[in-house]
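FW: tagging you since you asked about this chain on Friday. Here's the raw sequence from the shared folder, copied in full. Didn't touch anything.
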Amino acid sequence: MTPVDLYRRGLEISRNTVLRRAAYAVAIIVAAVLAVFPRPYVAYAKFIPQESTSGGAQVLAQVSSGVTNFASALSSQRGSYVIIGRSNDVQVEALKRLKAMGHADFADQRDARVRLEKKVEIHVLTGGVIEVRSRDHDPEFARDLVVAYTAAVEKHLAELGVEQVEYKRRLVTDRWSKAREDLETAEQVLLDYRLRYNLASPESTLGQNLARRLGYEATLQAKQVQLETLRSVAAEGSFQIRQIQNEMNVLRRQIAELDNPGETESPYRLSTIVADYQSLFRTQQYALSLVEGYRLFFEAIAIQEVTSQTNLQIIEHPFVDPARHFNLAFVGLFLALVLMAIFTEWYVPFTGLGGRPRLGRAGRNELV
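HL: got it, structure written out here
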């Protein structure tokens, strides 16, 4: 039968009311059956990605509330976990695990990836929970899909955690080494200057308030360096950055209190020797604050390295949903056929859209 014959046959059926309604009935019944059989099964797994630095931050918070908060703040946020879950590396790893489970139909990797994208979905739920969902007519295979995909995501996050630890370790090691060299140089210069002019300790020579002010200035400068480092790995406006900024504001207020012009002895009325001594002492305090900050940061990285493998908290282990599910494509076809039948068999004759005669206001037949 040629396409022209099929077209003519379709016109005959559309013009014959009995055949048209019979065709609607058969199509609706077939779509309803296919929407239910074969039965699809849906498997789920839910988990929350964990920042491996959280445990280290809690431990360090008990040591010091200032610089330790800076150390824990540098746990940078990863990119979107949904993008990670749909990445090529995760898909390849999931296919390897499925093949190891005995699913030989995934031997062709190119075809397997296309099928995997159709069968597996990743969603972000309220509270940052990641949901992995798979749909298949075989319940065991649907569950294996979720198991393989969850394990692949966990492995990929662990690899990212190791890379992050290594990057932070290299960054902190370089800066910590330079900070220690600067501290040794500053301490030696300060000691040589003190011995040259036979000066007492900085606290005795400069006075308690001035020594404290210089310590505040050095800490403020160190906080500024820490803030710049934090901005390279964290988003602007994050809680950690605001916390560092608040600490800097507190230091500025403390410096302003010591610089009260009402004091009888101004800290700036110093001789040339004492002024140079003051500058060297400020440099030494600044280097000391940097070394202490990077040391605590290095401890946080060591804790992160120990806990880097614990990157997922499983909320719901992979399971097959016992509820009844339907084949969505045929459900859509079923609804479309029902709406089409209602439109052509009831709405069109009732409104006269098909050009059929209906009774007008004057009691005569009119064509619409």
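FW: The chain has a mean pLDDT of 77.
HL: agreed, and The beta strands are 41-49, 120-124, 130-136, 312-320, 357-359, 365-367.
FW: great, closing this out.
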